[in-house]
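Hi R.,

Here are the chain sequences for the assembly we discussed:
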Amino acid sequence: MAYAYLFKYIIIGDTGVGKSCLLLQFTDKRFQPVHDLTIGVEFGARMITIDGKQIKLQIWDTAGQESFRSITRSYYRGAAGALLVYDITRRDTFNHLTTWLEDARQHSNSNMVIMLIGNKSDLESRREVKKEEGEAFAREHGLIFMETSAKTASNVEEAFINTAKEIYEKIQEGVFDINNEANGIKIGPQHPTTNSPLSSNQGGQHAGGGCC
Amino acid sequence: MFNNVPFSFTDYLLSNNHVNSIIVHKFDFSDEEIMAYYISFLKTLSLKLNNHTVHFFYNEHTNDFALYTEAIKFFNHPESMVRIAVRTITLNVYKVDNQHMLHYIRDKTAVPYFSNLVWFIGSHVIELDKCVQTDEEHKNRGKLSDLVAEHLDHLHYLNDILIINCEFLNDVLTDHLLNRLFLPLYVYSLVSPETRIIFLNVLLLCVLQVFLIIHYQPLVNALADVILNGDLSVFICQPDHASAGGLRRFIKPPESLERSLEMSRHRGRKRTQKRPNYKNLGEEDEERAGAGSGGGELEEGWDDDKIEMVVMEKGKASELTEQNITDEEKTAAATRTHTQRSRPFLDMVYSALDCTNDDYHALFVLCLLYAISHSKGVNRDLLERLQLPVPDQERRSYSMVLVERLIRITSQAALPDGKVRLATLELSCLLLKQSVLSGSHCLIKDVHLACLEELSYMLSSQGEEIFLDMFEDEYRSMTSKPLNVEYLMMDASILLPPTGTPLTGIDFVKRRPCGDVEKTRKAIRVFFMLRSLSLQLQGEPETQLPLTRPEDLIKTDDVLDLNNSDLIACMVVSKDGSQAQRFLAVDVYQMSLVEPETKRLGWGVVKFAGLLQDMQVSGVEDDSRALNIVIHKPSSNPHAKPLPILQANFIFADHIRCIIAKQRLAKGRIQARRMKMQRIAALLDLPVQPSATEVLGFGQTATGSPSGLPFRFYEQSRRAPNDPTASRSVFASVDKVPGFAVAHCVPQHSPSPLSSPSPPSSGSGSTGRCDSVTASTTSFQSPSALAPSLTPASQPTISLLTDSSADTLSVESLTLLPPADSPHLHPCAAAHSLQTPDASIMEDQREAYREREEEPQEEDGSLMDETETDATVKDETTETTELITPTDEGPEGADQQGDDASLGAEMESTTATESVEDTGGAEMHKEPADSPELD
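And here is the predicted structure of the full complex:
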């Protein structure tokens, strides 16, 4: 499918906060309640429209890579947006946000848009983290904030789309270097502006040395 | 498709070999989405690998491991996410402790994969280098930082493989890295500029990154040994390694990874072929690989290392023995070994430490030395033999060559126009401490002194207020953010030639200073670093810094004896509307709000304490009994908006109490700042500086009676004939305190008006008298006041100072203390007195006389104009600005111009009406000042 831009996202946060469920809800519009820690959805893609432009979102789940430093840092760098997820029914997942954020800020490029997401908002009765706390954390660290429920699909679309809007705005402002694919942004093949040799890559397996 | 399927069912599916047929299916990988799903699928599978499930993927009998071999074909895919997935898959595979599988990987895939990987990394470095070399005006920075980050990713990936500690994979990998990449491409290029394809900085960065990231001993130690100890013979073709693999060359693998994987599949299990270019530690290694799987890895690693070293130095056996001799006598080693044998790489490294033109290379060399000395993988003996700095270790000698060069860097950093960046200096201090600390004696006294001179010069060119804030601020930000070499070396911008402009967004410590304020900041930091270095080398503790130590301050809930203290009762209404009855007490550095202690009479419990220096006081418009007080938290980031820790209205019993409180706070603030300035002056040993005698004077007087000073000023003005005006003018000056508190809390605004006056004043041959007047009158008001008075006075000034009238002034006025104003305040406050104009005319005549000698034709104009000025100013000035009028009386129009302008600027920030008047005054002066030139 033709698209104007492709944005790469990553989803980060403690295990069990519903990262995979968010992804599944966004890409497949379904909710899978059985949570198997060992199997996670690894990848998802969906087309959205912003400002009349088709934009493809690629979401790479980073599950299971925490043990390798090289992998963590590469993932952060390759993404234009990150959803930082915590579980509103588990205070510890909220407390770990600082560590996640530090990691993200250290490894990512400085323009990466980070959205803070308090997931499982349907479980109001078991809530341990107040919405205001999430808001305050987001404000303090310059993030966008939203409470979502992967189960009821509440705000899930908005979370992904608002992040995309933010990235899109940054592109319009010229903050992102869109010809540099390392930022997690790719110009679509049909885009009127000339593609850099890198982005018009043939996608072959053996492009030889020197590609980045 | 397999995601979310119950585990046992997955097992079933996998066991039927369907998965493998899916894996080897040739999808259309040019579709990026198919590619992404495919590689994610493989990654998901790899995450499920363990000793049990590996059999579903790895077939021992057919020698098939499609999951792994298919995945690694994408190791250099253009899409970064795919490459990351491939790396994840390989790591997940290596992690599985299955000997058969690992043997398969080593025998069938390790050589092709690693040789291609190494080539890929090497090509990447060359691209990085191209990017640096073609850079113009830092335009490639975005791309460069990606390339550097990518290179770091590679090294981290290699390190992650090595950490898994699958020993025989590590052997293959180490061999390839060392002989195909590190030695031929990085190290060899260091010494041969004519054949060097890669820029020195890129090389140094690449080498030092290896040491920073990888700690695998056999690899790192061998590399360090060549750099520190080796010579070119390492690269001479050795007969027993004459086969293609034995050559240390950076060459493209003969065939693509996919092809070589194909070939090795068809080759069958013949031992001779499995490691065609692996070195001769074969047999022994084989046995070990069979025997020990888990335990004793450390020991084996050590053995490996030995073998590696012997292999490497086989071609230079003679040198090896020579080296052994020198090992015995370590004391004289550094110089002797240096002369005895050639160490081209080490020589190269040392010579790059030269900072005469710039510290472009030096920064990298310092980081390299730091990285080598901190690497866990480098043999301590190797470092000691070369007397390189080893952290936390006893030693009796140090490398003279290195220490000399380090000292040279520090002394160059202390020069006024030194090209050495702060990061470079900090690193060389670090290494210097490491090198000589156990041989404790101070080497750098002279260097230190040079820096002091520089700094006191800087101090004199900056305003008092801003300087203090900068001084404390720099100390805070320096101690809160100690240098991290790893982070420093992640920044691609250091690869480009050092620049001075902050517009590039390069961090302050990684570039040269831009403008006076940054130069001062740099000088302050240089001072801190050299001070800490010299103290540490002398084994003395730091007693003076930081100026504000938390343990010296009054804290909340402290109980104080407040008998005989001045207390003012007030109601504190904070911003959120809460009220509290408190007593306001002003200490030397702090103001505190106390509440009576219930048990002891006359004691109080502190409910709030804040630094006076960070305080702003302003009146409340509709309430004459109230003051608005804001105290900011000192922030380490000058660009961050200061965060108020107290923001409240204080309501006093009546107008008088309110005025008293306001005065006490304002004066306390000035006094607190002045005390700190004195301490800085003492720190800088300012008395030695002839140009800084003024500061010394003010220091002496102030220490004599610190508390009395502001009050003496107050008394002075009260004694003046027209009491109301004088006291009002005092208030006027107090009113201004919050004004420039604002000004320096917003540094991006303040430096320009505040620092601008100093250059013109020093250039225009200011007189001591004029300066001192400006300084003393404005010392309550203007942060820039110090600037003119402290700048080295030019010749004519001295001649004027010898005048009797000026002489009496100079002693006092140079102290910068309010009492110095007295001779001026009196005539000024008594506006009708004719003395002042007379005096100024006398001055003018002298001035004119001096000028006549130089330029006779100007005489009349300047004399007349300047007298006129005085008259005009008299008319124009209102009572509130009377304190400033003495400034105007000074004979030098040009000088006043600057000062007045600065005053005007400050006024603007306080009261609109005042500023109008004052800038009006300043403008008035421009005319006469300019007119002589016009004539």
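Residues 88 and 129 of chain A are 5 Å apart (CA to CA). Confidence is low (pLDDT under 50) at residues 191-212 of chain A.

Let me know if anything looks off.

Best,
T.
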